[in-house]
Design goal:
The structure is a homodimer of 545-residue chains.
Chain A (H helix, E strand, L loop, with lengths): L1 E6 L7 H17 L4 E3 L17 H17 L4 E9 L8 E9 L2 E6 L24 E3 L2 E7 L16 H5 L6 E5 L8 H16 L3 E4 L2 E4 L2 E4 L3 E3 L5 E4 L6 E6 H6 L12 H20 L4 E4 L4 H14 L4 E5 L7 H14 L3 E3 L3 H12 L9 H22 L2 E4 L3 H6 L12 E2 L6 H11 L8 H5 L12 H4 L3 H13 L4 H6 L4 H13 L1 H4 L28
Parallel strand pairs in A: 1-2, 2-3, 7-8, 8-9, 15-16, 15-18, 16-17, 18-19
Antiparallel strand pairs in A: 1-14, 3-4, 4-5, 6-7, 9-12, 10-11, 12-13
């Protein structure tokens, strides 16, 4: 049996576009001789549809889409992900389903393991399946599962049932898993391990089809693949691209190989590609073309601009320089050099007059008070107003340039440099920002060397350095990683050798700045624990703070 | 048996404060002759603790708190809510538990029905209980459940098990339910119905203990009560206040009554009291005393100021008037009259100079372009910068004054009037804003009559009215309510008689402004479906948009 793996980029709620794409893919697969074409989890509506699933109208459109798709499946079958209604007397109103379509008939297979951690909320909408069926097609028995259904492997068992253990008793010839498995830089490797563990447990081939593309903060890297029965990757689809490939299930079952047809790129390449896709897809799906950002001469805005230029084209990324009396001359030079290297447009607006006018307006109210963080923030906020004025006047989308270290400790001005439609680097620690800048520059200098080597500074008061307010980033990022990604508490951090006072100070900064992160733009998620929908913290809490 | 109902206000993660309060309450209950004191769900850590539950350190502190509390329970018993670890080989790492403490011993009862909708995420953290036990104390059999455990009543069954049906076979003498049941204006009535339905099904008394107080956007109104076996409220605790009351379980079982000892206030009183508590508690828990807001002379800022003055004291609420060349004279007069009525401080800063300086700075870049929404937004953003400057300089917290109708359709300026630490009216539709203003003014004019009767206007261009851009609020709010609260789709709305073009326009406005709502302050939740953590929508989606 020839099976097509369809790794597509869907648009949440855009049934017309998704349906057209799916039907075109079915036709292409048929032209290429496929018997069955496999699409990703919830492909008809895009993933994650979130609370749209609570609208009867939305479910109705999903059902219509499946019907349209099924009508096309005459001399070819397809497996397509869609929500389906729970018609039983109890439980949540929907199932997360894989629908098998062939010759006008449909057969529904339901997901049993519903991830409800980090960015996942599936138990919010779906009832888990409690019974399991084999799909029979062309004299083959197929164990058809959905994403998480095959992820509860290894020692720690999150769930009390295991779908493949239920299905394997029917002696299937083949496993097919349709997925919506979001990217983080560790995910391609982890996914390979989990898929291979299933093959080594059940000793039959496995076909795995994932989403590709970005849904605001959630990035899908694709990485769809077909595994031979002996546990090797026989065919892999590219990362971060749409793709259609056909495999022969008999060949997969017979194949003996020594190596994987899969190369997982290294961390910086993965992060770069993910962020570029994230920016490109945000603009494409929102219907925008042009980005603007504040260019400070620093490394965060420089790196953001490079990534945006790769995503949107250099000519579509506009850099606005807004020096104040505290800006060093190299800041302007470095920013201009970057724009020149990229061939991107830029302009300069001095903010001194604006700052002075605010000063005048506030003078009588602030009498007797000295320059403090107020005046620093006013500068950042003037820049925010100017950038948003360009957005309003010309239709730019503002890119936020904050990094994860800053977002973590609240080193940024709300309604100032924390503005933006999308945060490009908000899940990239400052030390990773440096690493990624070096990676970008590996063949030629794109980001000016001086931008990389000078000490980080917000330049909001004379001779300011980040290190005046924060620990050195090398140390800070280690503590942040242990606390945010690994959920280590203060006792564990001190036991690891970090200074107790420093640990308490950093953890307090993270927790007391939750209110700031509540109002930041969506952050492209590239780590296993990003700020945003995958990390939910109360604001008024008093814990380690 | 004498049972104390302890309706307390807890602070998330503040174990010291929570523990002290719980231990003081135990002592007070003992002094008053109670045999058992009942606290709310997850009382030791506050509700909702969200992802703090993923920190081993946090759970460890919960366990310590329970241990300290148990040590105090020598000649009195208590029931206290706390997370406890799942020590089994499978499932999520925690249970949501009620711990019975007496004479140094503890006995754990686990929650089976885990709400995972709207503002609830319990399945993210907890494994549901699958076995059920009766609590035995002082020769009584008690069916002890936790919140949602007794809410799956009526025709539509969300869950596949029912804890009370499991427990009733043991013939308990009494039901006790500990809860964290958030407020919305319909909740006191709904809660009474659900509790009464349990009593009428199982025909034994019921003791119900809820939280009171605000946890950022989530408000708890209390409403704890003791029901006689014949289904009447024998004792009720006040709404929106801490309280401790003692009931006798024998008396409850024997009581025959005709009426409820409970009066549920009407909608506007409930909303007013909830919002005042929400503002007060936000400031108290964050450690702040003083609020600032932009006073426009309009009804939203006027109502916000009244509520804030009631929460924090008039002297702690500062109104900043920032008229532009487009502000009408009555705007300033109305704003000053309000501040005078309240006895609150206020100041005026004209923004014309600032606007002109922005105009100068941008002139060469915007050459040939005319006045549009850019210049309107600049005015709103100048005001945002000024308000935040006061916050930074004097330690005020900015209150956001947007209402739910504006938040719904995106009628507001991001980084301008959408700024704030807390949104007071973001879950109150414009038509309800009027209703609440009338309620506030029912005995005397606090909000100037002119503020209530003049047509709403943003005053960002000459002679602007809200109705230039939006449908009349009477009509708009009806459509919004059907779409947001009741999840009606366009077909259903048209079938209800709304104009199809208008429906499509409003729904598109709601959906395309998700990006704005993503960056707004937390909104005090008073309706069954508020913007914020209870309504989760994708940003890049293209659905009805």
């Amino acid at each position: 049996m020839k099976i097509a793996l369809a790794q597509n980029n869907y648009h949440i709620g855009n049934f017309e576009a998704n349906c057209n794409k799916i039907i075109e893919t079915i036709k292409e697969a048929r032209d290429k001789g496929a018997d069955l074409v496999v699409f990703a989890e919830l492909a008809v509506c895009g993933y994650p549809p979130q609370d749209f699933l609570e609208f009867d109208d939305f479910i109705h459109r999903c059902e219509n889409a499946v019907r349209q798709i099924a009508e096309v499946c005459t001399d070819i079958a397809c497996i397509i992900g869609s929500p389906v209604r729970n018609t039983g007397p109890k439980g949540k109103p929907l199932f997360n389903a894989a629908v098998f379509c062939f010759q006008g008939e449909t057969q529904v297979f339901r997901k049993a393991l519903l991830p409800n951690y980090d960015v996942f909320d599936e138990y919010r909408y779906f009832e888990p399946a409690r019974t399991f069926e084999i799909l029979k097609f062309k004299n083959k028995k197929i164990a058809l599962t959905i994403c998480e259904d095959i992820w509860d492997v290894g020692n720690s068992r999150l769930y009390t049932v295991n779908p493949m253990e239920e299905l394997i008793v029917h002696e299937p010839d083949l496993m097919i898993n349709i997925a919506a498995s979001p990217f983080n830089y560790g995910q391609p490797k982890r996914r390979l391990e989990v898929l291979r563990e299933n093959v080594s447990l059940y000793k039959i081939p496995l076909i795995y089809v994932n989403h590709v593309g970005a849904q605001t903060e959630i990035l899908f890297d694709g990485g769809s693949a077909a595994f031979s029965a002996d546990g090797h990757v026989a065919v892999s689809l590219p990362f971060f691209e749409e793709s259609l490939k056909i495999v022969d299930s008999e060949e997969l079952a017979a194949l003996k190989s020594e190596t994987d047809n899969l190369v997982i790129p290294e961390k910086m390449e993965l992060i770069q590609d993910a962020l570029v896709m994230g920016v490109r897809d945000y603009f494409a799906k929102m219907g925008f073309k042009k980005a603007i950002l504040g260019l400070s001469g620093g490394i965060d805005s420089a790196l953001t601009m490079v990534l945006a230029a790769r995503a949107l084209g250099s000519e579509n990324v506009f850099g606005l320089l807004m020096p104040s009396q505290f800006s060093s001359s190299h800041s302007v030079e470095d920013a201009l050099a970057l724009a020149k290297n990229l061939g991107s447009p830029c302009s300069i607006i001095e903010i001194k007059d604006l700052f002075d006018t605010f000063d005048d307006s506030l003078k009588s109210h602030f009498e007797g008070r000295t320059f403090d963080v107020t005046e620093e923030n006013i500068q950042a906020r003037i820049r925010g107003v100017l950038l948003m004025a360009f957005c309003n006047k010309f239709g730019y989308i503002l890119l936020n340039t904050s990094n994860k270290s800053e977002a973590a400790v609240g080193y940024g001005t709300l309604y100032g440099d924390m503005n933006g439609g999308l945060s490009v680097l908000g899940d990239v620690y400052k030390t990773e920002v440096f690493e990624l800048a070096r990676y970008i520059n590996r063949a030629q200098e794109i980001i000016p060397e001086n931008t990389i080597i000078k000490p980080p500074s917000a330049e909001l008061r004379p001779n300011q350095k980040d290190s005046d307010s924060l620990p050195e980033y090398d140390l800070l990022d280690q503590i942040l990683y242990q606390y945010i990604e690994l959920r280590k508490g203060p006792g564990e951090l001190v036991a690891m050798g970090f200074d107790e006072k420093l640990v308490n100070r950093v953890l307090k900064l993270v927790n007391t700045n939750e209110y700031k992160r509540h109002q930041t733009p969506p952050i492209l998620r590239v780590s296993p624990k990003a700020f945003g929908m995958g990390r939910r913290m109360p604001i008024v809490a008093k814990y380690l703070s």
